[in-house]
Amino acid sequence: MAREFITEVENTWCTGCGNFGIMNAMKKAVGILEDRDIPKSRIFMTAGIGCHAKIFDYMSLSGLYSIHGRAMATAEGMKLGNPGLRIVAFCGDGDALGEGIAHMMHAAKRNSDITVVMHDNGVYALTTGQRGPTSPRGFKGPSTPEGNNEDPWKPLVLMLEAGATFAARGYSGNVEQLAEIVAAAVEHQGFSFVQVLQPSVTFTNYFEEYNEIVTTLEEGPLEFDEALRLARQEEPLPAGVFYRKEKEPYEVSINRGRNPVEDRMRREKRMKAIGDTLGG
Amino acid sequence: MSERDTFSFIVGGRAGAGVKKAGSVASNLFASMKRYVFQMDDYQSLIRGGHNFVATSTSLRPILSHYMRADLLVALDARSVRAHREDVREDAVLVYNSDEVEEGDLPDGVDAIGVAMKEAAKEYPNPELRLGLAGPTALAACIGLSRDDLAELIEREYKRDLEANQAFADAVYDAVSEKAGGRFELEEGDEERPMLTGNEAIALGACAAGLDVYFAYPMTPASTILHFLAKHGKKLGVTAMQPESEIAVANMAVGAAAVGARAMVGTSGGGFALMEEAFSLAGMAEVPFLGVLSSRPGPSTGVPTYTEQADLHFALHPGQGDIPRVVASPGTVEEAYILAAEMLALVWEFQAQGVLLTEKHLSESRVTAAIDLDSAAEVSPVMHEDGEYKRYVSAENGVSPLLFPPSEELINWTSYEHDESGFTTEEAGEIAAMHDKRNRKTEAMKERLKGMRAVNRHGDGGQVIFTYGSTTMSVLEALKARGLEATVVQPVYLKPFPVWELDEYSGANPIVVEQSSTGQFATLLRYELGVEPSKVITKYDGRPFEPDDLAAELEKAIG
Ligand SMILES: Cc1ncc(C[n+]2csc(CCOP(=O)(O)OP(=O)(O)O)c2C)c(N)n1
Ligand code: SF4
Ligand SMILES: [Mg+2]
Hints:
The structure holds two protein chains of two kinds.
Chain A: H1 18-35, E1 43-47, H2 55-58, E2 63-65, H3 71-81, E3 86-92, H4 93-99, H5 101-109, E4 114-120, E5 123-124, E6 130-131, H6 155-162, E7 166-171, H7 175-187, E8 192-197, H8 207-213, E9 214-216, H9 224-232, E10 237-244, H10 250-254, H11 267-279
Parallel strand pairs in A: 1-2, 1-3, 3-4, 4-8, 7-8, 9-10
Antiparallel strand pairs in A: 5-6, 7-10
Chain B: E1 6-15, H1 19-32, E2 36-42, E3 49-59, E4 70-75, H2 78-84, E5 88-97, E6 111-115, H3 117-122, H4 127-130, H5 134-142, H6 147-157, H7 162-180, E7 195-197, H8 198-209, E8 213-216, H9 223-236, E9 239-241, H10 246-258, E10 263-267, H11 269-285, E11 289-295, H12 312-316, E12 325-328, H13 333-350, E13 353-359, H14 360-363, E14 366-368, E15 412-414, H15 428-450, E16 455-458, E17 464-466, H16 471-482, E18 487-491, E19 493-495, E20 511-514, H17 520-529, E21 535-538, H18 547-558
Parallel strand pairs in B: 1-4, 4-5, 5-6, 8-9, 8-10, 10-11, 11-13, 12-13, 17-18, 17-20, 20-21
Antiparallel strand pairs in B: 1-3, 2-3, 2-14, 7-14, 12-19, 16-18
Helix pairs in contact in B: 1-5, 5-7, 6-7, 8-9, 8-13, 10-11, 16-18
The site of magnesium ion has 9 residues of chain A, from α4 and β5.
C-alpha cells in the first residue's frame, strides 16, 4: 500500500520551526536515495526525545522512537543487528551532545555505519528553553536567567576529532542542499554526522542571522586539517560536506562479514558447534 | 581417604603465581578420573599480590559445592598457610613453600611437607608464575600418579616452557612422594564429563536458543560471558561486542532486537543500575530483552570478586513504570544452560524482558556438568503474516505479532505511550488500553509458566527449606554432607512468582537460606506466599556457604 510520506499525526511544531525544513529535506533525500537503489524499506530510523524527535511520528519511515540521549546507541544496535539496513538517527543538540555525548564520540570512533542528523537549535526546546551544549555564552533561559556562563561546543570539531568519516553541516533554511547532504550521509558507508542549523522560532530565532552568515561550501569535502580549520570558524558558517573518508565500517569486522539476522546458523549446526566447544 | 565421600584440594598463593591455573588443572585431573568435581575460585580484585586460592572438591557422586576442609593443602606462600591453617582435615597433608613459610606457622597434627619451591623455580624464567605448578604436582604425588602420567599431564596443561616445567615439577614430585606418595586413594568414576562454569553455561544456553548478538561492558563476575562469546563467537555464529558503557550496551540491545536480532546483555549490579532506563524503554516498546545480572556483594563497588544475593529486589523491579517481566535464577550450572535458553525463548515469545539473576558463586564456579544440550528451548516469535501492519495491535494475550525491516509496511516501535500503530498518544482511553494490553502479557506468561517447571523440589521429607539461586547448591550439598532429610523448595522463576506451585506452603514456617544481610528472599516469600519463616539463615561476608558449616546451622535449626 503506497503511503504518503507525511503521516496523519497532528503536527505540533511551532509555525516556522526549522524542524519543518529538516523533514522536507528528509523526504527529498529518501527520493534521491531511491534513485540510487537504496529503497525506503531499507531505511530504518530512530530518534531521541525533544522537539526534533517528533519527526519520528510525522514521517512514514519505520524505526524505533528511542529515549533522550540514546538514539545513537539504538542506531548502532540496529546496524549491528542487520547491516543490510541504512540507519538514520535524528537527535537534538541536547540529546546528542548532552545526555548522549559518549555514544556520539564512540560511534564516530568506531566508525559505526549510521547517520546522525543533529537538529542544532542551541537549546533544550521541548523542556521550555534551557541552555544546551551549543548555546552561546550569555544565553538566557529558565535555568540560566543571568545568562549562560559556559562556552558552546563546536559539534563538527568534536566529531572530526572523534573519527567521523563523514562530517557535514546543513541549514534547515536551505532544504535542497540539506536533502543532498543527508542523502550523501546515508549513502556513505561509515559514521556520518550532519549538523543542521535549526532555528527554534520560539527560543532561538536565528533565521535572520543565519541567512546572513551561512554560506555554501562549494569545494567540499576537504582534507582533514582544512575541514577542522573550517569547522572551528565562527563566521561565516559554511554549509556543505566538510569531510569524507573511505574506511571499513565497524559492523563489517565485528560481525566478521556476516549479517546476524540473515545468516543465522541453523539449529543443528549451532548445536554441533556447542558440542564441539564443550568437548574442547 | 576418610569415610567421607569427598576429597578436597586447596591451592593458595599470591595473584600472579598461577593459582587459578593450578586449581583448574587439579579439577581437570579429577574430571579425567571420571569423577564429579566442584571448583570454587577465591580471588581478589587485583592483578599482582594479595591472597588467592582455589578450593576444588571431588566425589564419585554428583557434588554441588567445594569443601573448605582440605585433604591436601598446597601453600605457595606464607599467607596461604596462615589463611587456611584451620581449614585442614585431621589426616591432611600440607605441602608448603619452605622458602617463605616459618615452621612456627604450621598447624599441628597435619603431615607438613616443606619444599623449597622458590629455590627450585629460581633457575627458570618466570619463577613466580611457575610456583603454581607445585599444586597439581603435589596432588599427583599424593594420589599416586606415576612420574610418566605426571609428565603427560604437564605436557597437556603447561605447554609453554615445557622442559623447565618438567624439571621444576620433578623436584616437587620427589620431595612430596618421599613422604606422602600415594597417600590418598582416589577411585576412578564412571564417566568423563566436560567441565564448565556457570557463565559458560549461560552463554551456551543462549546460543542454543538462537542468540545472535551479545553486548556487555566488563564487570566481574559477568565478564567471562563476554570473554567466552568473544572467543567462541565465530564458531557459534554470535557477535560479541563491548560498547562504551552499560547504557550503550542496553540501548544497543534494544536497537538490535528491533531489527530482529536476538540480543542478550550481561553485567553486575553497578552496570545493571545503568541499564534501568533501557529496561523501561524495552518495557514500553515491547522489545524482547534478556539481561544477565550476576551479583557480587554491594552496595556500590562493593566487593568485586565475591558473592552475594542482595540484588534480588533490584532484579525484580528495574526501570520506571509497570512492566511485564520474567525473572529467574538457576540453581546449578546445568540449570543455567537450560534457563538461559528458556528465557531467551520466553522474552521473544512474549516480547517481554527477562532478568537471569545469578551470583558470582554460580557464574564462576567450575563443575563437571552433564547437560542434555538438545533439551534447550528455541526462540520462535509470533510473526506478522500479511496485510496492514500495526506494531501494537490489540491481542487477547497482549502479544502483537512482530515484523522486521526491510518491509513495505510501517513498523513503529516507541518509548512514548502509543496507539496500536505505534504513534504517540496522550488520549486517556488509549493510555489505559495499552497498559491493559501489556498487563495481559503478564497473565499470559503465568499461564505459560504453569505448563513448565517453575519450581524445583529436592528431597521429600520433614523440614521444608526454601532457597534459590546458587545457594541451592550449598543447601543440597550440606544436607548430603550430614545425611540430613529435608524438602528443599527452590523457586527457579521469581517473577511471575509461581504461587500456583507453592499453595501448599502458605502459612508454613520454613527455614529460609540465602546470601543477603536483610533476608530479601524471605521478604519475597512473606509477600508472595504469606509464609513466616521459622529461621532465616543468611551469610553476607562475600563467601559462599561452606557445606559442613551450613549443615551444622541447618541441624540446629531443624532441631
Ligand atoms: C533521561 C531524561 N532526562 C530528561 C528528559 C527531559 N527532556 C526531554 S527533551 C529534553 C531536551 C531536549 O533538547 P534537545 O535534545 O536539544 O531537543 P529539542 O527539544 O531542542 O529539539 C529533555 C532534557 C528526558 N526525556 N529524559
Ligand atoms: S519550540 Fe522551537 S524547536 Fe520546538 S517546535 Fe517550537 S520552534 Fe520548533
Ligand atoms: Mg535542541
